Amino acid sequence: MKNVYNDCKEFLFHHCKYVRPDPRKYSTTDNLTIIPIQREAYFLVLNKYLNKGDCVLDVGFGLGYGLTILSISASEVTGIDVDKKCIEYCQDTLIGRNPKVLCLKHYDGYHIPFSDNNFDLVTCIDVLEHVENYEIFLAELMRVSKKGVFISTPNRRPEYTNKDGSPKNYWHLREWSFDELSQILERYGNVDWNFINGPNDRPFTISSSVQASTMALSPFIRKV
């Protein structure tokens, strides 16, 4: 018998812009693809903020390639994610293969299961745009770091924004311009700004000021 309920969901998904999927159902493992601009952000952390021997926490590690990049200089790397599928995937691909990746944990998206100042550095690449209460989330990132937190999130650009101001990427709850994000982050520490510029499929350039081609806002928030 025809499933009318599923047919209705399918129709709404494809024809009604106001119907958005539940962000909690998003999984990086649905598409096992390395995102070039994410990789660029991890290399920016590695080359500018990560000191040899640092202990690092990567929040929202996804497919885990950022953990591997961070482990080039870090003494040990820990990852946490809300997505149990990612944890299962990386348990098979990283744990026992990369000796610096010590621990992968599931968490609820807000309460990081580690003590204050537990890590030298915290990284959070392409996660903030998925978080509903970003203020609680940012405070938690800062709490567990000693030196500070590196964040990378999409720059809000007209071609990726709907007329109502919502992101065209329907898994994103929101995206920010530089001015908007700057006003938020200055409450958490001293912000060192970086901008990743260029087409989505590279090549990229890194600048200290926002450009017409800026695709990602990649600040480092220094703990005070």
**CATH-derived architecture:** 3-Layer(aba) Sandwich
Distance between the termini: 63 Å
CATH classification, class level: Alpha Beta
**Biggest sheet overview:** 10 strands, mixed
**Rough shape?**
globular
Structural class: alpha/beta
Assembly of the depicted chains: single chain
Write down the Rg: 18 Å
Beta-strand residue fraction: 15-25%
Total helical segments: 6
Number of separate domains? 1
Walk me through this protein's architecture.
This protein has helices at 4-15, 36-48, 65-70, 84-93, 134-143, 178-185, and strands at 55-59, 76-81, 101-106, 119-125, 145-154, 190-192, 195-197, 205-207, 214-217, 220-222. It is an alpha/beta fold and 224 residues long. Strands 1, 2, 3, 4, 5, 6, 7, 8, 9 and 10 form a 10-stranded mixed sheet that branches. The protein contains 6 helices and 10 strands, in the order H-H-E-H-E-H-E-E-H-E-H-E-E-E-E-E. The chain has a single domain, classed as Vaccinia Virus protein VP39 (Rossmann fold), CATH 3.40.50.150. Strand 1, helix 3 and strand 2 (76-81) form a beta-alpha-beta unit. 26% of the residues lie in helices and 22% in strands.
